[in-house]
Design goal:
seven-stranded mixed barrel, 2 helices, about 5% helix, about 30% strand
Length: about 290
């Protein structure tokens, strides 16, 4: 086996391979997938000299541990966490040289939810429909990592960034999501729409890569019954029968029959990747466009 590979020693709660995703296949029932915190994934790629679309590891809550078979440069970003190399602390948010056989341990998130691990050359698993991303809903792409998984790496890229540490946004203490109302806000009472855009919610522990679920006031319907299934977009805020809004994220279904009360601005979605259960959520209505 080639020495351009990465062995997974500790897979953690949920670690997946992610890149920019596979947009453009919704008509086939395929979600876009990709890193939930796209800016964090792009930054760690830049730190190790990878192109922005190289595949990285996305960890959840308690990190992972890996051992390269050749000397590589690694950067960890996203949720702040302790990083050690053979038991010794090394930098988070900066490029780190990892010798062949050394153990890099990405610890539990100190804030936020998801950390991103870029390795020089990128994770070079076989692409599916143009992407190396793991899609938890459809099962496309590589399976979530398990202990003992060996991941191929791509060719060594150009030189890595020369920085001490790269500034990154703090995980949100409050999630403020700008929404364009519609297309089905008329399925709710005027009071429900007012509540949606004025009352606080909180992130539910049932949230995942498919959707950010909320806890808070239920939204009352103005119309009974259900819609025929229709197309769903990234950031759609669907309201299931319990009345609590769900924000569709990267692995969301491409169709659905529950009404969509609004759509979250794309620029606000990366912060959802780092919102811990219990984080306050506010939906703020804005004009379309």
């Amino acid at each position: 086996m080639t020495d351009r590979a990465l062995a997974v020693v500790r897979a953690g709660a949920l670690t997946t391979v992610q890149d920019r995703g596979r947009p453009g296949h919704a008509h086939l029932g395929v979600p876009r997938s990709g890193a939930l915190d796209g800016p964090a994934a792009a930054l760690v790629n830049r730190l190790v000299g990878n192109p922005p679309d190289a595949a990285v590891l996305e960890t959840t809550l308690n990190g992972c541990a890996v051992r390269p078979r050749s000397t590589v440069t690694v950067a960890v970003g996203g949720a702040p966490c302790p990083v050690t190399l053979d038991g010794r602390p090394v930098a988070w948010g900066a490029p780190v040289r990892v010798a062949a056989g050394a153990l890099l341990d990405v610890g539990a998130a100190l804030q936020g939810v998801r950390s991103y691990v870029a390795v020089s050359g990128g994770i070079a698993v076989d692409p599916v429909l143009g992407s190396r991303s793991t899609d938890l809903l459809s099962g496309l792409g590589p399976a979530p990592l398990t202990d003992g998984t060996v991941l191929p790496l791509g060719p060594v890229p150009g030189p890595h960034a020369r920085v001490d540490v790269a500034p990154q946004p703090r995980p949100p203490a409050e999630l403020v999501l700008r929404v364009s109302l519609g297309p089905r806000d008329d399925w709710f009472t005027p009071e429900a729409v007012r509540i949606f855009t004025s009352r606080p919610y909180r992130v539910s522990s049932a949230s995942n890569r498919i959707g950010l679920r909320t806890e808070g006031p239920a939204l009352e319907r103005a119309l009974p019954g259900e819609l025929p299934s229709e197309g769903m977009v990234l950031g759609a805020v669907q309201v299931p029968p319990d009345g609590r809004p769900v924000v569709f994220l990267a692995d969301h279904p491409t169709t659905g029959g529950y009404p969509v009360i609004g759509v979250v601005r794309a620029a606000d979605l990366p912060a959802t990747a780092q919102a811990l259960p219990g984080t306050p959520v506010r939906f703020v209505a804005v004009r379309r466009g």
